[in-house]
Write a structure and sequence with these properties.
The structure holds 2 protein chains of 2 kinds. By secondary structure, chain A is an alpha/beta fold. Helix content of chain A is 29%, strand content 24%. In chain A, the strands form 2 sheets. Chain A has an 8-stranded mixed beta sheet with strand order 6-7-8-3-9-10-12-11, with helices on both faces. A 4-stranded antiparallel beta sheet of chain A has the order 2-1-4-5. The chains are: A alpha/beta, B alpha/beta.
Chain lengths: 343, 341
């Protein structure tokens, strides 16, 4: 198979600037670059993990892909079609093919609808089935996500957080999508429930040949589910790599800082020094040059003035950093001895 | 070593329309001077109620402390008159909460809020209290404290607000700091900063910390001892090394093998079957038996007490002597960082 053939979703130079207005005439005085020149792709059957701290633009990327927000620029291609130009039937088909599971299962389910009608809504709206047949599909979905078909007439408040997330997953599956965007799907759940949902997502991926865009701030969870991982900082992708390479050979200082701040559940692990000082700068006044330079422990003069272009250091491993040395050797051993791999 | 706080057989229940809910059901805990005890468990297991009981902040009604004692410097906090308890809070035992966003008053500057605490607990003039506020803010790593103390909470980031909370809690040099999920709402890089701050303040002042969390990574890096809580009881207790290298309670083993760990990709995570029991109708016997892979007849009738299996390592399980990570691995076929060792 040609490698370009099975690209399901391609995001090119995606931008979203939110205007900041002032005064009674709402004059635009500034803008927040929530998403700035983001590019990545997801292949069929693949999970791309998107990691970053709060406010980095992860969720805005997902809203743009879903066409829940209008972009300021850039393109998104799904199965080769320009998503932002879709209208009518083709837009409906796109919406059927790309579904979403949100973080908070308490606010993402309508409390006034029974869970049967929540899951059935899309099936009806897209004219896939009606009446008895529709109910049958919903009951099968309920059982597929580990709930009982008898729950059809119950309401969201009767369910726990983990069960609600299963309902949200059943709703996403109801239209047989090709891509599911999971926006922090396990962040609101306890660890033992988190394991149930992660296992369920992995099973469904295999059974239905799904692709996921998996957004999370939890590096361990992302690493567990993803084939490839991208990090985002202040609206930009800073590094993309295969999951193995991501932790065995992280190159961007931000990735290294994130990995080192992630505490391993092992008391014997030697304590790693805190790498990142300070907070993320205000998006209203982003730093000049590389946006990370104000917190970067290895920043040099060039970082303060020049914006780094993404560099492909090896096949599929893209880093946006001036200091990346293409010839640099991988650090010995994963994680324990993270070093700044800069020349 | 001398325990600075000793909780014995603490019982707390909340009255509900359907009867009393046993939120804490007979727990024993000790915190040694200058050390950190990690209290680990899932939501609803009774962690926060335990913390609030120590400060006697259980809302009553509907809550009631129905039994046990909490000894601090030889005095039972549960028997103290409210007036004495007011002096203990803040001066001797202080607390920081999970949500720095909601625990600060939005209409006062952070300086005013810290000053209020100092003046309430110590004989200080307004000017002295202000000086102290500046010093404390500086100590918790807030840049230009003289200016920042005039800021309102909404003008600060989450990490900065948590620093303010810590400053407030430490303003009267407490012996014990109770930290209830202090970093759960923060990003990982900010979490690392806050944990480092707590560690250095502890090294400096020798205070003891009761650290409540559900994050095993945080516990492993901060605590010297760990208590695992499940359904209102402590099910396992020991040094952090013992708990992580040789867990003996099936719940602990289940918890440890259900989390993804960096560097151990792929494979299914262990899933503890079933759900946490409802505190209104706990099962008879061991509260974990309906979800336990090793449950036997005895477990369904007889609730195990927390017993020492060897030097300071305690479990509440009838079969801890015969259950360990090797048996677990054999039985569940799961692998994890713990089990591979």
């Amino acid at each position: 198979m040609n490698s370009t053939d099975n690209i399901l979703l391609e995001v090119r130079n995606l931008r979203k600037y939110f205007p900041v207005t002032s005064g009674i005439f709402s004059r635009v005085v500034n803008s927040v670059k929530a998403v700035d020149n983001v590019s990545f792709h997801i292949k069929a059957g693949e999970t791309l993990g998107l990691v970053g701290e709060s406010g980095c633009g992860k969720t805005t990327v997902s809203r743009l892909i879903l066409r829940l927000a209008e972009p300021s620029g850039g393109e998104v291609y799904f199965e080769g079609e320009d998503v932002f130009k879709l209208r009518g039937d083709r837009l409906r088909r796109f919406r059927k093919n790309v579904q979403v599971v949100f973080q908070d299962p308490y606010s993402s389910l309508n409390p006034r609808l029974s869970i049967g009608s929540i899951i059935a809504e899309g099936i009806g709206a897209h004219g896939i089935a009606r009446g008895r047949k529709k109910r049958e599909i919903v009951e099968n979905l309920l059982e597929r996500v580990g709930l009982s078909a008898g729950y059809y007439n119950r309401y969201p408040h009767e369910f726990s957080g983990g069960q609600r997330q299963r309902i949200a997953i059943a709703r996403a599956l109801s239209l047989s999508p090709r891509l599911i965007i999971c926006d922090e799907p396990v962040s609101a759940l306890d660890v033992s429930i988190q394991a149930q949902i992660l296992n369920l997502l992995a099973e469904l991926k295999k059974d239905f040949n799904l692709s996921y865009l998996f957004i999370s701030h939890d590096l361990a969870v992302v690493e567990h589910v993803s084939d490839r991982i991208a990090t985002m900082y202040m609206g930009e992708i800073t590094e993309i790599a295969g999951a193995e390479e991501f932790y065995s050979r992280p190159l961007h200082p931000y990735t290294i800082a994130l990995l080192s701040a992630n505490l391993l559940p092992d008391p014997k692990q030697k304590k790693r020094p805190v790498i990142l000082r300070g907070d993320v700068p205000s998006p209203l006044a982003p730093p000049s040059g590389c946006r990370f330079h104000t917190r970067c422990p290895v920043a040099e003069d060039v970082c303060r003035v020049k914006w780094p272009e993404p560099v492909e250091v090896s096949a599929g491993h893209v880093v946006r950093c001036h200091l990346v040395d293409r010839e640099a050797p991988a650090p010995p051993g994963p994680l324990a001895d993270l070093t700044f791999n800069t020349a | 070593m001398e325990p600075v706080l000793k909780i014995s057989n603490l019982k707390v229940s909340f009255d509900t329309d359907e009867g009393p809910a046993r939120a804490v059901d007979g727990i024993d805990l000790e915190i040694m001077k200058g050390t950190t005890l990690g209290l680990v468990g899932e939501s609803g297991c009774g962690k926060s109620v335990t913390c609030l009981s120590v400060l006697r902040l259980i809302p009553s009604p509907p809550g009631r402390i129905t039994g046990g004692e909490i000894l601090y410097k030889g005095r039972n906090l549960l028997a103290l008159p409210e007036k004495d308890m007011e002096r203990i809070r803040g001066n001797d035992i202080s607390m920081i909460f999970q949500e720095p966003m909601t625990s600060l008053n939005p209409v006062f500057t952070i300086g005013e809020q810290i000053k209020e605490v100092i003046m309430l607990h110590q004989q200080k003039t307004s000017a002295e209290a202000e000086e102290l506020t500046v010093r404390i803010l500086d100590k918790v790593g807030i840049p230009s404290p003289r200016i920042r103390m005039r800021a309102y909470p909404h003008q600060m980031s989450g990490g900065m607000k948590q620093r303010v909370m810590i400053a407030m809690a430490l303003s009267c040099n407490p012996e014990i700091l109770i930290a209830d999920e202090p970093t759960t709402a923060l990003d990982v890089t900010i979490q690392a900063q806050i944990l480092e701050l707590m560690q250095s303040l502890q090294d400096e002042s020798g205070m003891s910390i009761l650290l409540v969390t559900h994050d095993l990574g945080v516990v492993a890096s901060m605590a010297s001892h760990v208590a695992i809580m499940y359904a209102s009881r402590i099910v396992e207790y020991g040094s952090v090394e013992d708990i992580f290298s040789d867990p003996r309670h099936p719940y602990t083993l289940g918890l440890f093998t259900s989390i993804p760990v960096i560097g151990k990709r792929g494979g299914a995570l262990y899933v503890i079957p079933g759900n946490v029991p409802d505190p209104l109708s706990f099962p008879d016997g061991c509260k974990f038996w309906p979800r336990c892979l090793f449950a036997a007849e005895q477990c369904m009738t007889q609730e195990p007490s927390l017993r020492e299996i060897r030097d300071g390592h305690k479990t509440a399980c009838h079969f801890s002597q015969s259950i360990d990570k090797h048996v677990w691995k054999e039985k569940t076929k799961t692998t994890s960082f713990l089990i591979s060792g």
